[in-house]
């Protein structure tokens, strides 16, 4: 399969970024220096840098050229009563969502164990691509027992907050269990998140209970670019 030269160059620059050959937030070498380093034309270098900028790995600045984008979204690991929408809104950021799919499924053994409901129970399954300030942030899947929200499939979750919807319907969710894993990305995840094959993903699995029921009402699985996320641990005093 033919791979454009600029793509090969962008992959090499990308590897230098993630291996800390370039310091975080530093100005990377100039186009002229990169031309000499890789023995290619300036057009090839510009295309390679443009590709990395489109992936939010580089930022072009006036007078300085490209710098490494070290902006990372904070992921709280506290027992939070706020979802992503509320948390980032508090930080002054704009959260939007694109609904990839929504359907009603039969509860599997895996979901039965997580949500503490019987196998075969009807489960609402929502998959969204979520954006922060217009930039792709995560693929988020939610699994919710239909018993608690019988009309949830009629709601449009491309706007607003899932947890706000729950609160409006009398349930106040709170994360009681969280599992975090770093792994190799899948092809479909790379497609939706616009990341390279070498980019690992962070997978955050949250189980939220309700103070009204004291039972799990939501299993969420959040998949995001591991290089663009950071963990924030807080202990209750």
UniProtKB/TrEMBL annotation:
UniProt keyword Cytoplasm present: no
Residue span, HTH gntR-type domain: 3-71
Top-level taxon of origin: Bacteria
One annotated GO biological process: negative regulation of DNA-templated transcription
Alphabetized InterPro entries for the sequence: Bact_HTH_transcr_reg, Chorismate_lyase_/UTRA_dom_sf, Tscrpt_reg_HTH_GntR, UTRA, WH-like_DNA-bd_sf, WH_DNA-bd_sf
One example GO MF annotation: DNA binding
Pfam family, one: UTRA
Keywords: DNA-binding, Transcription, Transcription regulation
PANTHER family from the UniProt entry: MANNOSYL-D-GLYCERATE TRANSPORT/METABOLISM SYSTEM REPRESSOR MNGR-RELATED, MANNOSYL-D-GLYCERATE TRANSPORT_METABOLISM SYSTEM REPRESSOR MNGR-RELATED
Name of the featured protein: GntR family transcriptional regulator
Species: Solobacterium moorei
Phylogenetic lineage: Bacteria, Bacillati, Bacillota, Erysipelotrichia, Erysipelotrichales
